[in-house]
Every structure is written in structure tokens, then in C-alpha cells.
Design brief:
Number of domains: 2
Distance between the termini: 73 Å
CATH class of the largest domain: Mainly Alpha
Order of helices and strands: HHHHHHHHEEEHHHHHHH
CATH superfamily of the largest domain: Intergrase catalytic core
Helix content: 40-55%
CATH topology of the largest domain: hpI Integrase, Chain A
Strand order of the largest sheet: 1-2-3
Number of helices: 15
Length: about 350
Amino acid sequence: MSVRKAVERYLRRRRADATESSVKAWKYRLKLFTEWTEGIGIEAVGELRPYDIDEYFDLRSGRVAPATLESEMWTLKTFLRYLEEQLDAVEDDLSDAVRIPDLDAEDRSDDTTLRSEDAFALLDHYRDDETVRARRSHAFLELAWYTGARQGGLRALDVRDVHVNEEYIEFRHRPDTGTPLKNKIHGERPIALPSAVMDVLAEYIRKERHDVTDEYGRQPLLTSSKGRPTNNTVRNWSYMATQPCLHSACPHGKNRGTCDWRAYTHASKCPSSRSPHKIRTGSITWQLNRGLPPEVVAERVNASVSVIEDHYDWATQEERWRRRRDRMESRRQYVDQLDLEENDDE
């Protein structure tokens, strides 16, 4: 079996238990590996040897960032393990030859995030200015910040998923009608929200939401005049909603009235605007700083604790110190129980 055919077979198998976006990412990474093997004359997967895998690592390590290299090597390792265990098409333990770079957290993550002070400056502006309160940008930012949800999850919300009286929203996996969640059924969850956030969502639905349905007859929560937005549209809304000139003077010396970055198609060029992913990163860091246990935050944002620690937690050293101090104080009652003088068993 050629490497190209093996990759095609592997991706077909993975489509059954992965999202389309994940499969696309794996396809691209393995395409690079396939083209490299063809370029050096490897005609079948059975010809692959540990030396080849090591050579490929050296090649890619000189061309991509450490975090990208890590992702590529994990994809390659999983692919080779499939060939070993499912097809018996390569020599045993070939996947062990794949080196996974040992990265620091700084190498894995991008620290460009929506800081909590910037988020609340924006939210205060939206909540206090009647001309923009409860409009789509406001509703989007309230949802994105207080849930820490992924872009696809925000896009997937329907009006029926907002439970105003009970003060929670729920994310549902609905692949048959165009809104799968990244982790599929495991991504389904209710998220409790503060009363102030629910008040904004209720006001948005009542006054500002376009009364439209999508192609499946569902009522999207966040809407354009045409129905449910695409992922790219949600990203553009995010850039527009997070520009600091909405509430303060431009930190980049621009005039708001003439700035090209205020245009819908150029908002991403503003150095201070943020994508949904950057809002998610800032929200997760803030939730942890507020004292929510990592496992609680992980459940709310649908990610593992280890992924949060490696990719989303961008707390400063001072913020981390405060967390440790607060945890120590909260556990003082247990430490007191260790005092020998208070031991009633003796």
C-alpha cells in the first residue's frame, strides 16, 4: 500500500469519530508527510523505517514553529500506530520512532488574548450605552466571555437553548442540521450564567435579534438578516465587537471616524481586535483567576484540565501567586485538623 493510499484509508476511518475540521487538519499534516516520502522514493508504507521518521522530524523542525511541529508529530504518530495495530502494514513499534518535542507552555501558546480589564471595559460600555446595549455585538461578547465557548459552539446556539428564568444556556450537538460541536455528544453541556448576562440575552432576543430561521427551520440565537452566520462571519463580528475605540481613544493613534479598521472587512487588521479564540483564552484565564477550580472550568468550556493548562491559561506570575495563596487559605481548615494538640484520638 502506498503512503498516499494509506493516508486516504486512515482519514476515511477517522471521519466516523471526528469533526470535519479535525479531519481537514490531519489531512493537511499527512499530505506534507506523503509528499516528502514520494520525493525520496518510498513507494509503500512497508518501506518506512525509524531512520526515515527521524529524518522527517529533522526536516520539519527546521521549518515550522515548535507548537506546529508538536501537532504534526502527534498526527504522524497516530497514523503510524493505525498502520501497526489495525493493518499490520508497517514494522512493529514504528510509531515509537516519532519524536514529540518537549515544549514549554510558552512554546505551545500564543499570549495575545483578550485581557479581563479590556473585556470588562467593553462590557461596561455595552451595558451602559443605550445606543448599543443588547445589540448583536453586545450579546455576542457577553456569551463569548462568560461561557468561554468555541466559535462553533456560539454559532450553534438556538433561541430554544437560552433558558432565561433558570439562568442557563445549553450547547447541543446537532450535526444533521449543520451545527456539530467539536467534541460531538461529549460537547453537550448546560452552562449557568450571571443574571446580568441573561438579562442582556433576553433583551437581545426581544428587541434586536433578526426574526429569521436557518435552512433547517431552526431559530439561531445569533443572527444576520439572512439567518445563521458562517464561522467566518462570527469571527468578523468578534473583531468588530472587541475594538477598544468603542469606548476609549484609539491606542494606535487612529481617528475612529476615518479609520479603515472600523470597516467590516478590515476589522481583523486592528491590533487590538480579538478573534473568538482569543476571547476564549482570556475568559478561561479569568475564570481560573476568579477561583473556579480547574475541573469546573474544564467542564464549562469543554476541554481537559491539561489542555487548559497548556493552551489557555495565560495568567501572569502575580495572578498565579494569588491563586496559590487563595487555595492555601481555603484549605486552612484541613491543616488545622492536623494539629496534634487538637487530636481527640489520643
